[in-house]
Amino acid sequence: MNVFLWGVLPYAAFALLIAGLVWRHRYDRFGWTTRSSQVYESKLLNIASPVFHYGILFVLAGHLIGLFVPASWTQSIGISEHAYHLFSLYGGTVSGVLAVAGIGILIYRRRTNAPVFRATTANDKLMYVFLLGALLLGMIAKLSDTSGNGYDYRSTIAPWSRSLFTLDPKTELMEGVPVLYHVHAVVGMVLIALVPYTRLVHMFSAPLQYLTRPYVVYRSRDPRQLGPRPDRRGWERTGS
């Protein structure tokens, strides 16, 4: 079981992710969307969506740093292990709370607004279960041991994660990991496998060009500079 969970399941999840992305792009390109329900309700969505997206971005950034930046690197730039774990504890908790709060409002919105609820698919419900489960389990695991530096996942889970990329998974590192971290990792891998088959697929088509494109400048029409507007064509004229 240890070999299957930490030596087989990660690659299976990654294979399902890639296969699903290829399949969606080839056969369901028009379905590659968030299936926005803003047309039915926008007040709660305008609150919940930014809260969730900012929260989940910080959560993902924290995971990338925690799993793939070795402790020797942070110590080399003067960040002590205690300072790192304090930042991880408080920063991760705030990010998790934001993401969970956003999901909570989104679920409430879907359940209380009839048109939005009718537009909710079985895949959406499954996605919410695993996404919310992964976030809550991660927060509970992190907060379950706050004494000292907390659980030192950078000496077990992090090197195991990095070993996956060398195709030599060090499954023995996961043997003494607390159960909550085990469950969190398994739920996270299942969530990765589900991404292409849910609305989460839109994360792979984020408009990154928005970060570098020039500003779009809008100018009001000044009749004193541009002169009077030309007469409209016959079919554009409004009745008097």
Automatic annotation (TrEMBL):
Residues 2-221 form the NarG-like domain. It comes from the Bacteria. It is found in: Cell membrane. It is a multi-pass membrane protein. The keyword Membrane applies. Keywords: Cell membrane, Electron transport, Heme, Iron, Membrane, Metal-binding, Nitrate assimilation, Oxidoreductase, Transmembrane, Transmembrane helix, Transport. The keyword Secreted does not apply. Pfam families: Nitrate_red_gam. The chain crosses the membrane at residues 6-23, 44-69, 89-108, 128-144, 179-197. SUPFAM superfamilies: Respiratory nitrate reductase 1 gamma chain. InterPro entries: Heme-iron_electron_transfer, NarG-like_domain, NarG-like_sf, Nitrate_red_gam. Its main location: membrane. This is Respiratory nitrate reductase subunit gamma. It comes from Streptomyces tendae.
